[in-house]
Amino acid sequence: MDVRIGITRSLLFYHYFPLWRAFFQGLGTEIVLSPPTNRLILERGMRLGAGDLCLPMKVHLGHVESLKGKIDFLFLPRLVSFSADTYLCPKFLGLPDFVKAAIEDLPPLLAPCFNAKVPGKGIHEGLRKVGISLEADQKRIGASIGEAVASQRRFEELLQEGCSPLSAMRLPDAGKEEPPEVQRVPRPELPLIVILGHPYNLYDEFLNFDLLKQVSGWGFAVQTPEMISPERAEEKNALFRKKIYWSLTRHIVGAALYFLHSRRVEGMIFISSFGCGPDSFSKDLIDRRVKAFYPLPYLSLIFDEHTSQTGLQTRLEAFLDMVQARRMRAVGH
Amino acid sequence: MAISFQAGESLKITVPHMGRIDLAYARVLERRGVTVIVPPRPNARSLKLGSQVSPEFACLPFKLNMGNMMEALEMGANTILTYGGCGPCRFGYYSCLQEEILKDLGYQFVMGTTDDPDRMSSTIATIREITGIRSRWEGFRVFYFMMKRLSAADEARKLSHRVRPRERERGAATEAYQRALALIDATSTLKELRRARRKMRRLFSSIPLTSDGKSSAVKIGIVGELFMVEEPNANFELERKLGEMGAYVERGIWLSEWLNERFHFEPWKSARTKRAQRLARGYLEHSAGGESLISVGGAVDFARKGYDGVVHVMPFTCMPEIVAQGILTRVSRDLSFPILTLIIDEHTGDAGINTRLEAFVDLLRARKRTG
Asked: Where, residue-wise, is CATH 3.40.50 in chain A?
């Protein structure tokens, strides 16, 4: 099929790209991925996303803009809910409409609605509709969905084994045919720093100034919520009077508690975007629980388009120094 | 909902403010022998108390609720009743976080929430539980009376909107509105309430008006997040200010209608959400939670009905309304229809809001003159 499908390297790309990729490849379409976030994308996003949008959403608009003219269809699913008792953040619920309002001359959208609360709006049904609107044949659609789901499962397994999403996706480098080998991150002998946050804040290396690599460069093992299985995160959520109903946030908070209780953590970093709604609550919930593990070093970083690398560097170095000092004391130097 | 108490302690209930919902339940429950503690209306102190202990990026209604709860607990309340819900807006998780914050601060109380706010029956069950009313029918009658009181309060507000731009004496409509609320509050039966409603209509129609033609005044629609639209102390008395600048104000959302819709209380009455959904088509195809659809649909509605502009009011960091705000800029451009978004948090100042409202009304007047 000679169709180019545009997918943005933003928002839930870090969560669902393997699913989307396997599906569209199965249909025989070409996938055009927006480049990793860069200065131009950020600036375009800031211009398009006036108002009170959070940084990841603004950047998303920049990504969409960067795909214009290079694609036949833009894949922009409306992600409402992944399970019967969760939602995504309201901004995801209105995302296709929001993008349409913000950007002129959009390519035609493929915007299926995924809503696990409504029968007939699950992942399978949504993808089937996309396949039909691309005029693929039924058999091929079915096979692609099967392959997509399997590929997503493999991806999630890799994450739980400790791979970073970008490495587990095995995106081929520019000009190379063969995708790189998957790299596993955790090195049990190194002290563990846990970094919490939404995937689009954790893994966008441009926006967070490559925070994860910086921390591991200092000689720490870095773990993120994606490395915790949903079952374990879910178990910890039962500790709340009411389970958190934003799916990503629920997982982050559950994973945070799991990490805290496993007692191997030497420091914790929470990164969030300026004005993030779900994070405003989840951070408070986590803060209250971290206090019980006093004096565990805990750093909160809030990113927006004005965040500077130097400011971040200073805070990060001070934090990691503190973690090191505590370790030294603990071993009795 | 199960409310448990330490032995010997009697129930002292408080409900954080949401518009004039206190008018609906407070006296009614008191007459049934329940001790109700109504905190002061949201004010500078509640805001200060609330903002000090709330997460920085929590929305303003959360912070004001928080302050109200602290005030009510200081006044002796031992039970907080509030609605829950299950997203996607933060409102559904308010009570869980507020309970944690208050208990960490050392307050002792019981938090009673119903996580099934869309069912009339769960509210009636709560009413029966706290009043000790045995019969379901009697419970329903109490609930019915509360809903009617609330819609009477909304009617009083509508009447004040109609009169205020043309009142001869500044403040007459506001005073009549306060008197109307007192009339409603004094009623204890449906019959009395009907009488109070008639009296309140006479009250408003007896206000002396200026002779300016009705047609020259600008007409402004108000949409946005429900708490902010409802609470004059949170929206800097938006409606009164616009009215006193000579603008007719109509709202796209009312608490009584909103509750009516949630509860399917009188389903034959106009369903704003359905209507908004239809009007928002092409702009917002799926609710982004909260009042996002009603804000977008409402603005389109006001534009079609020939209003001169819309004021969209929302708390800082409100997720559903951020989506609506983005889409409203497109609505405004497409329909060439002025829309002013006011984003409010604890740092917003009166003078800033005044300036923006005056400029907006001036703009609408100028547009109206030039046609």
From this structure: 192-331
Concatenated DSSP letters of B99-165:
HHHHHHTT---EEEEES-TT-HHHHHHHHHHHHT---HHHHHHHHHHHHHHHHHHHHHHHHHHHHGG
Lowest mean pLDDT among A107-111, A237-241, B162-166: A237-241
**Distance between CA atoms of B340 and B307, rounded to whole angstroms?**
13
Residue B35 included in any domain: yes
Cα torsion B314, B320, B326, B328: sign: negative
Domain around B147: 143-213
Which of B56, B63, B97, B343 to substitute to test the interface with A, most A CBs within 10 Å?
A: B97
Is residue B17 assigned to a domain?
yes
Model pTM score:
0.94
Strands A298-303 and A265-273: parallel
Per-residue pLDDT, A56: 96
Residue A201 is inside which H or E element, if any?
helix A199-202
CB A20 within 8 A of CB A75: yes
Cβ-defined contact of A276 to B84 (cutoff 8 Å): no
Digit-coded pLDDT (tens) for B107-131: 999 998 776 767 888 889 989 989 9
Rounded CA separation B34/B26 (Å): 9
Residue of B nearest to A103 (CA): B330
List pLDDT tens digits, range A175-202. 666 777 776 765 678 899 999 999 999 9
Q: Cβ contact (<8 Å) for A98 and B283?
A: no
Instruction: Give dist(CA A59, CA A103) in Å, integer.
Output: 13
Residues B190 and B323 in one domain: no
Looking at the structure, tell me whether residues B249 and B341 fall in a common domain: yes
Answer for the pair B123, B114: CB distance below 8 angstroms, yes or no. yes
Contact call for residues B92 and B86 (beta carbons, < 8 A): yes
Q: Where are the alpha helices (DSSP H) in B250-318?
A: 255-263, 272-279, 292-304
Cβ <8 Å between A94 and B288 = yes
Does residue B266 lie in a domain region?
yes
Residues B340 and B234 in one domain: yes
Q: Judge whether B84 is closer than 8 Å to chain A, CB to CB.
A: yes
Q: Do B357 and B295 fall into the same domain?
A: yes
Mean pLDDT of B27-49: 95
Residue B3 lies inside a defined structural domain of this protein: no
| pLDDT confidence of residue A182 | 72
| Alpha carbon distance A316, A212 (integer Å) | 11
C-alpha to C-alpha distance for B15 and A167, rounded to whole angstroms = 51
Given B134, B159, B181, the domain boundary residue is B134
**Taking a C-beta distance cutoff of 8 angstroms, is the pair B37, B101 a contact?**
no
pLDDT of residue A313: 94
pLDDT in tens, A43-88: 999 999 877 899 999 999 999 999 999 999 999 999 999 988 999 9
Determine the Cα–Cα distance for residues A29 and A22; give it in Å rounded to an integer.
10
| pLDDT range class, residue B7, cuts 50, 70, 90 | very low
**Interstrand relation of A192-196 and A221-223 (parallel, antiparallel or unpaired):** parallel
Percent of chain B at pLDDT exceeding 90: 82
Indicate the residue of A87, A101, A240 with minimum beta-carbon distance to B87: A87
pLDDT band at B266 (very low <50, low <70, confident <90, very high): confident
User: Would you state the CATH architecture of domain A192-331?
Assistant: 3-Layer(aba) Sandwich (3.40)
Q: Say yes or no: B350 and B225 in one domain.
A: yes
CATH of the domain at B270: 3.40.50.11900
The answer on B239 and B157 residing in a single domain is no
